[in-house]
Design a protein that fits this description.
mainly alpha; cell membrane; single chain; transmembrane helix; 0% strand
Amino acid sequence: MVTVPSAYTAALCAGAAVWLCVAGGPGARRRRLLFAASAGLNAGAAPHRRWVARSASPLRRWLARPVSRFRPEWLCLAAGAGLALLGDSPLPLLAGAAGIPLVGRRLRARARAGERDRRADAVIDLCATIAAELRAGSQPAQALCFAARATGALGDDEPAVVAAARFGGDVPEALRGAAAVEGAEGLAGLGACWQVAVDGGAGLAAGLDRLEAALRERREERERLRAQLSGAWATVVLLALLPVAGLAMGAALGAGPLRVLLHTPAGLACLVVGGALEAAGLWWAGRIVRAGAEP
């Protein structure tokens, strides 16, 4: 049985560990300066001491970059540890550990969506910049190289596209290859405009203007759809937090919901069934909202 002082001590130690992992600022700077100074002192030491210093340098570098080690999904483990201490049961800790990959997957998907939107905006800026440079009197290849450096819309494919533009390569094919990246689909339209301008003699600036207008209209439509679905997502989040609110109310009334759920057969059965229903409901509601978000 975990006593109250020991529980408070464990929670304090866990909080201190989290703070050391995520804290930056002057403390982190002092640690880096300390490690640098110790490395300088070890430079003139004996050979075996220098070997020890070199073998410890990865650990020092790991300790000197605490912020880069932190991942938001690790908070699931911290929350599970807190509930395990409060409920005197390892089940919340196991549930928190199991939730780390699920939350990490969701956060990575969200980051990919943000990167996709930023790349789509960069493609729009690329088309606008090329059109402006062409009207200013630049050659198509020169305008493409300048716009690629200014906007960064081509990403890792920028050297291939720039080389094709400078040395007479197949620019449309290079742009279609760059369009395979998620969010950069507009580059395929840029390649088509480039090919029509080269083969048929059509104005490239006029085609890029129409392409930019189409891409902007698509982005605005996507933003309007997200604004309309924000209420549905808020409802899903509210339904997900209702069980947590019920547990908090029960604890405030002195009913001991964690003790009932974690230490009685009926409570364990309710916990399993309720958790399964909660997960199924969230999955189904999220599926409905995501289906509505598809263009």
